[in-house]
Amino acid sequence: MALKLNQLILGTLALSTLGLAACQAKSDTPAASDASNKSVVVATAGDIKPFSYEEEGELTGYDIEVIKAASQYIDGYDISFKTTAWESIFVGMDSGKFQLAANNLSYTDERAAKYLYSYPIATNPLVLVVAKDSDIKSLEDIGGKTTQDDTGTSTAKLVEDWNAEHGDNPSIIEYSGEDVAKRLLDLSNAEFDYLVFDKISVETIVQQNGYDFEIIELETGSNPNNYIVFSDDSQDLQKQFNEAVLKLYEDGTLEKLSQDYLGGSYLPDKNELN
């Protein structure tokens, strides 16, 4: 009787061992597949609603959700997100810490010389924001007036370029480092005279806070589109992302994300996706 019991126990242990080995082999398969992917990190400041922001502790926004939607068509990469200070985004790209940047980024020749641009994922013209009773009606009126901005932005460069052409009466730029929501609050409190920023972000924050501003769309002649930016060694990832954006454009996903996050249809013309 004892012999049969020992044989039964040994048989059970053997079956259990085989079952465990089978489970381990099965679970190892996807792990090996995942390990073959290249890990890439998207850098974002996470403070520029509606493009990149945190909601209930989760990072979301138009740029973020476009990348998430595009990732289903991208092979060979594990994409994650990292919030960081604005001034650290391109420093991190240069050091190899980040491979993508998503922060309502516009086109500049300086960036294009160092990084790769995606197809445009939205169109987002610049606006001039002033108090209702301001005597500023256009860019031609900003001489001697004060604005707030951050270093390295396309909006700061616009004012800097304007100053270069109007050296006799330049505008004053306070490089505050504040996010746009805080800058609009400061503008409403008359701490400076005007703000140049993108239309979608301004209209979103103005609506949320009930500010009474004059919002003037600018004809700057510059590219008004919004992009994802890639490190210069990410050609394959950029190519796959662009192909994915075209699919999202064609199947209506990009339009839906624009409506959900930007509050309207802000897609570029399809002929710009080439």
Give an overview in words:
α2 (62-71) crosses α8 (235-250). The chain is globular and about 60 Å long. It has 9 helices and 14 strands. By secondary structure, the protein is α+β, with helices and mostly antiparallel strands. β10, α5 (154-165) and β11 form a beta-alpha-beta unit. The longest helix has 34 residues, at 2-35. Strands 1, 5, 6, 7, 8 and 14 form a 6-stranded mixed β-sheet that branches. A 3-stranded antiparallel β-sheet has the order 2-3-4.
What does the main sheet amount to?
A: 6 strands, mixed
Taken in chain order, the helices and strands follow as HEEEEHEHEHEEEEHEHEHEEHH
Going by helix content, strand content and strand pairing, the class is alpha+beta
Assess the beta-strand content as a share of residues: 15-25%
Rounded average pLDDT? 88
Give the count of helical stretches: 9
| Beta strands, count | 14
- What is the CA-atom radius of gyration, in angstroms? 25 Å
> What is the general shape?
globular
